[in-house]
Design goal:
The complex is a heterodimer.
Chain A lengths: L14 H8 L1 H20 L6 H10 L1 H15 L7 H17 L4 H24 L5 H20 L3 E2 L12 E2 L2 E2 H19 L1 H11 L1 H6 L4 H24 L5 E2 L6 H11 L11 H20 L7 H28 L1
Antiparallel strand pairs in A: 1-4, 2-3
Chain B lengths: L1 H5 L2 H19 L6 H26 L7 H18 L4 H25 L4 H20 L13 H4 L1 E2 L2 E2 H19 L1 H11 L1 H6 L4 H27 L10 H11 L11 H20 L4 H22 L6
Antiparallel strand pairs in B: 1-2
Classes of the chains: A mainly alpha, B mainly alpha.
């Protein structure tokens, strides 16, 4: 099922080699994060201060949470370019509810339900309308982005009630976003690995006809996985909307690309069928670590995007080289 | 069987366009004036140039997300070459076009040599090229170009905006190459079944390299026209233009899986989008409301087209 492990070659290798082969990408990113921390802390020890570590890890938690859902979508063989616009819309809904005097738990949960509902429509158009997911979500991107700005006029929402700011709170001394990120990542990872439903996502992405022949209700699964992705977008929104004192009711530019990039760098193959959400979460942390490191080593933050671009290309090239090598050894 | 032919995607699209034009014309008497239509053509050119070449890219089963970033990069470099390095403007333009083509060639090399899926390769270069543009410019803009330069983006030739002539020429050449040459048939073959095309002796990699380079060139040309039209250079130019171009191409009936599509379809897609944008704004609807409609039209057209062609996803 997973092309990361060459069949017929597995039995001869040790457990360690198997682990490295199956989680190669995750290990590479973890290694990159570790190397970055060591190098930058040698130049500037303040990089490792608890405050900065907290900023690095919790600042991009919403990207990591959204990337969990995105990884599921990509593993199933689809793509969603509308998720950034969706998060913008849901954040505005959340902030509007909070300032209108509704209890904060409603302002937190309603966006999650709205995310599930909107993505149910996307999923149905993909699965039953047989429109490619990139086309549906491209259309949805326009609808959500245009709808949001024409309704709100891009106004900022302030005067948010103080107890609304969930992302600024701590539980057992650990910031709430880190709890969200860790629990959701581990939960999703185990769910995708050990349940029939989770495995069926890999099956659909790996070979849709084989999945159908194996009795997986492919269409229904696609709608369901889009709804789950919508729920993760809603959860990401809760972190995104509650981290600052204001909510800018526009769509964060390029947010969908950042989320897709986190998934892809994390080792989710765009061809579907492989990858884990541990990798995408590590990639989200790596992004914010790089952003922070550039400040500490005095590189102009204007170059951040170029660095991330180089990083994407290097990871992808290494991944492709590994694939080619494993295909060769499988043939032997 | 013939009625099925009549319900080809392009026909549906043409009918939709006519319908839209009639409704829009009835909403405002300014819509169907020559001045307005020509002006709309001016606004359509940058997306149009990119979309025409994007049609080739998508027919081969690929995609190019980096065009908006190439546009931004070339725009910035145009300013740097001319103002900071003091090169004559025509040479700066030439170098800009060269850089754009090279940027496209790099996409092509990553895709063909290293077998990286186009979506990922160009996602990476989208970040890279825009990043370089941002790094070089540091959010400074370049202004004060000489007057003759503005002819390209603001002037007229025989009563028609200059850039519309360029778009027309590119469209015509592209339509002839894609529709009437052996090379054009090869493009479809690559998108339809790449392995089969390879075994038929087609130079698949060379075809792809040429197409991605052309895509970079089109983005660079769009950058020059963009700078000339708005008289200034900024690093965020062209952000999101890749999605507009892809929307026009897909709306025009080109299959996102490759192997099917026409230039005329893309042109109809472009016209429909621009007519909607303009007509609705004349009818008093804000431009953001128009974007909603374009999204809905995109989904509905493909849905309709799928209903009429039940067999096959393509």
């Amino acid at each position: 099922m997973s092309t990361d492990v060459a069949p017929g070659f597995v039995a001869k290798r040790s457990a360690v080699a198997r682990f490295i082969s199956a989680y190669g990408q995750e290990l590479v990113i973890a290694g990159a994060i570790a190397a970055l921390f060591v190098l930058v802390s040698l130049i500037s020890p303040r990089f490792l201060s608890p405050n900065n570590l907290n900023t690095i890890i919790s600042g991009n938690a919403y990207i990591a949470v959204a990337a969990i859902g995105m990884s599921m979508i990509i593993i199933t063989g689809h793509i969603d370019v509308s998720v950034g616009a969706l998060i913008g819309v849901l954040a505005t809904i959340s902030g509007t509810l909070a300032t209108a005097g509704y209890p904060v738990w409603i302002a937190w949960t309603l966006p999650i339900l709205a995310g599930i509902g909107i993505n149910a429509i996307i999923g149905a158009l993909v699965a039953y309308g047989r429109i490619p997911s990139i086309v549906v979500t491209l259309g949805m991107l326009s609808i959500l982005r245009g709808g949001l700005v024409s309704i709100t006029g891009g106004a900022w929402i302030n005067n948010l009630p103080p107890d609304f700011h969930l992302a600024q709170q701590r539980l057992l001394e650990i910031p709430v976003p880190i709890w969200f990120m860790v629990l959701l990542t581990v939960g999703a990872f185990l769910w995708m690995r050990h349940t029939a439903f989770g495995r069926s996502l890999y099956a659909i992405g790996g070979n849709i006809e084989a999945a159908r022949a194996a009795g997986i209700p492919v269409e229904r699964r696609v709608v369901q996985v889009f709804m789950i992705h919508g729920a993760f977008a809603g959860l990401a929104t809760v972190l995104f909307a509650t981290q600052l004192r204001i909510i800018q009711s526009t769509v964060p530019p390029n947010l969908e690309l950042t989320i897709i990039t986190a998934s892809v760098i994390g080792g989710v193959s765009i061809l579907g069928g492989t990858g884990t959400v541990i990798g995408s979460t590590l990639a989200a942390i790596l992004f914010s670590a790089i952003g922070s490191a550039m400040i500490f080593i005095n590189v102009s933050p204007y170059w951040l995007r170029a660095v991330i671009g180089v990083l994407i290309l290097i990871t992808v090239l290494i991944d492709m080289a590994r694939r080619v090598r494993e295909q060769r050894s499988a043939k032997r | 069987m013939t009625w099925r032919k009549l319900l080809r995607h392009e026909t549906i699209l043409a009918l939709l366009s006519v319908l839209a034009l009639i409704v829009l014309a009835s909403q405002s008497d300014k819509f169907f004036t020559v001045d307005n239509l020509l002006n709309q053509g001016r606004l359509m050119t940058e997306v149009g140039l990119i979309a025409i070449i994007m049609t080739f890219v998508i027919i081969t089963g690929g995609i190019d997300l980096s065009v908006g970033s190439i546009l931004g990069l070339v725009a910035i470099l145009l300013g740097v070459f001319w103002k900071n390095l003091g090169l004559p403007l025509p040479i700066a333009i030439g170098l800009g076009l060269l850089v754009g083509t090279l940027a496209g060639l790099i996409n092509g090399i990553i895709i063909t040599r290293f077998r990286v899926p186009p979506l990922i390769a160009t996602l990476g270069t989208l970040a890279l090229y825009r990043g370089i543009a941002e790094g070089i410019s540091e959010a400074r803009s370049v202004r004060g170009y000489p007057d003759w330069f503005f002819v390209l983006g603001q002037g007229q030739f025989l009563g028609v905006p200059v850039q519309l002539w360029i778009l027309g020429a590119v469209t015509l050449v592209a339509a002839i190459i894609l529709g009437m040459t052996v090379w054009g048939r090869g493009v479809y073959a690559v998108g339809h079944n790449e392995t089969a095309a390879r075994y038929s002796g087609l130079q698949v990699d060379r075809i792809k390299l040429a197409i991605y380079s052309a895509s970079g060139f089109a983005a660079a040309l769009a950058a020059v026209i963009f700078v000339s039209r708005v008289s200034t250079t900024r690093s965020d130019m062209g952000t999101g233009i890749e999605l507009d171009a892809i929307t026009a191409v897909v709306l025009g009936g080109t299959s996102i899986f490759g192997g099917r599509g026409t230039i005329i379809g893309t042109v109809l897609g472009l016209i429909l989008i621009q007519a909607l944008k303009n007509g609705l704004s004349l009818a008093g609807i804000k431009s953001d409301g128009t974007i909603v409609l374009i999204g809905a039209v995109l989904i509905l057209t493909i849905l309709l087209s799928n209903l009429f062609h039940r067999n096959g996803n393509r």
